[in-house]
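Complex 461.
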Amino acid sequence: MLKSSEYSHEYHHILKDDKSCKEKAYEFAEGYKSFISAVKTERECVKYILNKATSYVEFDAKKVKELKPGDKYFINNRGKAIVLLTIGKKPLSDGVNFVVSHIDSPRLDLKPNPLYESDDIGFFKTHYYGGIKKYQWPTIPLSMHGRVYKEDGSFVDINCGEKEEDPKFIITDLLPHLAKEQEGRTLREGIKGEELNIVIGSLPIQSEDDDIKCKVKENTLKILYETYGIKEKDFARAEIEFVPAYMASDIGFDRSLIAAYGQDDRVCAYPALMAEIENDAPELTSITVFTDKEEIGSEGNTGMVSEFLFDIVEDLCDVSCVKARDVYRHSICLSSDVNSAYDPTFADVYEKLNSSYVNRGVVLTKYTGHAGKSGSNDASAETMAKVIKLMDDRKVVWQIGELGKVDIGGGGTIAKYMSQRNVDTIDVGVAVLSMHSPYEVTSKLDIYHTYLAYKAFLLNK
Ligand code: MN
Ligand code: MN
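Predicted structure with manganese (II) ion bound:
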């Protein structure tokens, strides 16, 4: 016979179940804040991970003859995605534990021929990357990040606008006095894609040569050449991203929340990294993936549609004489991605019973998708049961979460690319307010319990 209170279940504030976690969570958040402030692009994230993962050696399929429990390897995919793995005590054919997060975030990329001047102001043309609300990007400080190749084959990495003394960049917006027509536009068109032009200078080059028509542009190129050794043509062999030049901040009098750029999905990547690094002697092999290109549909050879990860699994299988398909069918994957936190200010789009909330723990998202679960990995009851048991056994505070009301919109993650390999997959991550905005908001307690969730999963026996 159950007590009358034991029939029902309510999801509630983390502090109700884990009263003592605040101090540890706030401490964990300090490490996270320095990471999220320092690392603004997928390339910078890979560098950070390589620096942290000092106990990992590069996996060379031709040289590794045997996989020993506790061995740690990394595989760097073109400096834009990376895999860390720890060999477990059990054979690979018993399955592996995958944790897959993504390290790209919505941003403004430069077009391949970006530089122009108009009426004595120099600009860069941009092409936005991922799902942004374009009106959010003008009138905030921007920084420039990326890699440019030169004619001689050498390259230069640019990071300008993050240090206090660095210059910043900006997109302008119309003053309200003259915005009557603009304010009649839909929000989607409030700022149009071709209006996301970045101001980069306003001084003309000092030259006697009257043939130079665009003197501000010429002066900008002179500075770029003197600073980075790059010329205009080199933009065609470059990947340059403009992102908010914001550091992470505590939010609220109680400092319970964190605002930062790029939390989707580096707020999951960081706990996944920490859990993987600390995972010394797992039963099952762990494969922790930091992938690129999720925000544009996981495309390309650094995204999850690529064979990259699956080739690694095959290489591991070759060493231990097992079949990759035997590994996949026994494996579980945590698609380590964020969900949308319920926002009381915009309550209309959420369905309260099934939304995720800040401070209610790591979110187990059974399915994502659009209109009738289309495009979703829909985790099975069996997979949900396994993961929920794991969380409960290890006292990880968790909640469920749907993105929003059924017919109102939707989204997707990398989950479907793992499940199509026959891996049981479920989305597990942090609830985010203002997702995809230049300054997203998360909860320290949630981040900490997400870290505990990944740790519990990787230690799974
Ligand atoms: Mn994401
Ligand atoms: Mn996203």
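The longest strand covers residues 107-118.
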